Amino acid sequence: MTRPASISGFPEWSPAQRMIEQQLLDRIRTSFESYGFAPLETRAVEPLDQLLRKGETSKEVYLLRRLQADGEDGGGDAGLGLHFDLTVPFARYLLENAGRLQFPFRRYQIQKSWRGERPQEGRYREFTQADIDVVDRDELPFHYDVEIPLVVIDALGSLPIPPIRLQVNNRKLCEGFYRGLDIGDPEAALRAVDKLDKIGPAKVAELLTGTAGASQAQAKACLALAEISAPDESFAEAVHALGVKDPLLDEGLAELVRVVEAGREHAPGVLVADLRIARGLDYYTGTVYETQLTGFERYGSVCSGGRYDNLATSGTDRFPGVGISIGVTRILGLLFGAGTLSISRPVPTCVLVALPDEDSRPACDRIAATLRRRGIPTEVAPSAAKYGRQIRFAQRRGIPYVWFPDGGEVRDIRSGEQATADPQTWQPPEADRYPTIS
RNA sequence: GUGGCUGUAGCUCAGCUGGUAGAGCACUGGGUUGUGGUCCCAGGUGUCGGGGGUUCGAGUCCCCUCAGUCACCCCA
């Protein structure tokens, strides 16, 4: 008989929080569509072999199983699992529908994902991501790597959240550098360098010599590279100054310069080249993005992605892409936790129509209907209580206006101002029509 | 998934080395019998996260479990 309790990692926001989330999602969607990304939703579930095609994430995947499945089929449903991001399902969708799509194909996708990891602040087992990707057939022009971060800078910039810092790096640059240095295990080096923020340069150097087969001098060079960070193209000179020569390094360098140049022009101070950014080792092949929320740096990236040249391939078909994903639930969780996101009222209602007595309900319903038709969220009082109670009902919910049908008057209960009004023509100030977030 | 810390009213929190439920705000009713907020009075404010154990007796000690949080891992 114990009361039902919450489930770890599966957040359920309050109505006020949900209204905030919906408004953020609306604005993100509007931003995405303003760049011409088309909406897509894929099923929640993918075959396990699709999910595990890249990366060693098997432990986090939630499996789908029927309650009544008998032991013979292993209790499984053909090995289905809930998707843990939106990129892998998108790659599957591409291969399945390539013949019906126009390329380059740009889509956005705003959906839940699931990961069976241990939850903590800003990390959940069920969470919403807002994803954009551009994919082409055979070759994807690099200018999309330049465009993608500008889209999310726009999207996140339209939200009432702290400023962001979008860090960009390029895998080719790092791998070329390591190759030019002749380091034994470039992947291990990448992994070690990625921990720089967390464990500091001394520990990273240990890792580099220990696991990546680097000499002391090589480790020092890797650290020097990782510590380069700049909001403009000056980072390229800093890399050149390290004196390493490699064709792949030059290619990555040139690409990163293009991204940073565009960032400096369109979003000054937001986008920076940060050569320590590595991302998960799985499918990224070039540009990589990560995003810090000012004041919440320690909770990790709230928006990341990159270029993947080999994620969607089938036989001779190849669909290179570049994309990025906004961690909506993470952003909300952090800001709710800090108490810095609020909404002007916890219900949509703008007007409460007071009810003089039950017999008047049809007349009150007509007033409410008229207001609603004109786009003003309206509800009628639940019962014909004393007017004082009805006003209090509105006040407790933050409803700004009470409509008195007998005299045909509307009262702003914040100021106490009351005036005669016609439901056919009365307008609330635009700021009062819907709840506003700040 | 491994380990650490935390859990008392709707919220913020007290509660001494085991001895019988507490404050502020919020909430409900009334003072005010159809125009709220201030003020006054009266009051639910409680499975002490849940279960088990030790004890004459457990909010307090022990075990398990759930949730939150932190570190590792990984990442939105």
Brief synopsis:
The protein folds into 3 domains: 172 residues, Bira Bifunctional Protein, Domain 2 (BirA Bifunctional Protein, domain 2, 2-Layer Sandwich); 130 residues, 2-Layer Sandwich (BirA Bifunctional Protein, domain 2), CATH 3.30.930.10; 83 residues, Rossmann fold.
CATH class assignment of the largest domain: Alpha Beta
Which sequence of SSEs, written as H and E, runs from N to C?
A: HEEHEHEEHEHHHHEHHEEEEHEHEHEEEH
Low-confidence stretches at least 5 residues in length (pLDDT < 50)? none
How much is the average pLDDT? Answer: 91
Distance between the termini: 41 Å
Q: Estimate percent helicity.
A: 25-40%
Number of strands: 16
Taking strands numbered 1, 2, ... along the chain, how are they ordered across the largest sheet?
Answer: 1-4-5-11-10-9-6-8-7
Q: What is the global morphology?
A: elongated
Strand content: 15-25%
- Compute the CA-based radius of gyration: 27 Å
If helices are DSSP runs of H or I spanning 4 or more residues, what is the number of helices?
14
CATH fold-level label of the largest domain: BirA Bifunctional Protein, domain 2
Question: How would you describe the overall organization of this protein?
Answer:
- This protein has 14 helices and 16 strands.
- The protein is elongated and about 85 Å long.
- It has 3 domains: 9-151 and 315-343, 2-Layer Sandwich (BirA Bifunctional Protein, domain 2); 164-293, Bira Bifunctional Protein, Domain 2 (BirA Bifunctional Protein, domain 2, 2-Layer Sandwich); 351-433, Rossmann fold.
- Helix content is 37%, strand content 20%.
- It has helices at residues 15-34, 48-51, 87-97, 143-157, 171-181, 186-194, 196-211, 216-226, 234-240, 247-266, 328-338, 361-373, 387-397, 430-433, and strands at residues 38-39, 45-47, 80-82, 105-114, 126-135, 164-170, 229-230, 271-274, 287-293, 303-314, 317-327, 351-353, 378-380, 401-404, 409-412, 417-420.
- Helix 12 links the parallel strand 12 (351-353) and strand 13.
- With 438 residues, it is an alpha+beta fold.
- The strands form 3 sheets. A 9-stranded mixed sheet has the order 1-4-5-11-10-9-6-8-7. Strands 13-12-14-15-16 form a 5-stranded mixed sheet, sandwiched between helices. The chain has a two-stranded antiparallel sheet with strand order 2-3.
- The structure holds one RNA strand of 76 nucleotides.
